Amino acid sequence: MKNFSRNSKIGWAMLFAGIGMALELLLNWRLYVPLLIGCFIIYYWKSHQGRDSKKLYLIIGVSLVLIPIISTAVFKIFIMAAAVYALIQYSKTKKQAKKIVIETIPPNQETKVNRKMPYIKNMFSGTQKVVNEIFEWDDINIQCGFGNTIIDMGMTMLPPGESVVLIRGFIGNIQLIVPIDASVTINHSAISGKLNIFNQKEELLNSNVIYYTDGDDETASRRIKIVTSVVFGDVEVRRT
């Protein structure tokens, strides 16, 4: 146990807490029933995403799922243990001196900061599709709550060098279509879901995997680095 890293210990604690909450829900039918109803409502919402009036079902379903989980004794114990652990770690950091390096710039040198809104934006719920559209390329960094995300980069003029695509989602599927002449690196993390990378399929359960295309990626004129993470959902990356 002493060789475990801090992240490993936290991961094991979360795993045991999840198992404990699942057992408590199974043994207490009063908590189990609203959980099943909530899952059914979320499934019903997902099959009718095209209608705005159905978003109410999402709120009700998520509430019915979260309330039983929060009501379990294991969850309360886990929260208290996490708070104690955070206080201990905070007290340790206060005792350790930090080395701060300050970089200065010559006087009379002003830095101009420009701001722009990206073409692809965050989305809390619903389906976001960017297919067969021409847009000015910016590195993609978005978060998606509930719903599917489809981005087609086949019509995009990627600049030379490395382009970054960072997508984080909660529940939903992600599909990315990349140019055929670009080298690709995929770093994907998921609690549960399927991963389809250029027709190479894999089932994931609390896993993190990295895929990269053959060839000398450092000398390729156009490189795409894709970083995706979802809690529950499938991810597909394919060529145009």
Write up what this structure looks like.
Keywords: Membrane, Transmembrane, Transmembrane helix. This is Cell wall-active antibiotics response LiaF-like C-terminal domain-containing protein. Pfam families: LiaF-like_C. With about 240 residues, the protein is α/β, with parallel strands linked by helices. It has helices at about 5-25, 30-45, 55-70, 75-95, and strands spanning about 125, 130, 140-145, 150, 160-170, 175-180, 185-195, 200-210, 220-230, 235-240. Strands 1, 2, 3, 4, 5, 6, 7, 8, 9 and 10 form a 10-stranded mixed β-sheet that branches. It starts with 5 loop residues before the first helix and ends with a strand. The model has no long low-confidence stretch (mean pLDDT about 75).
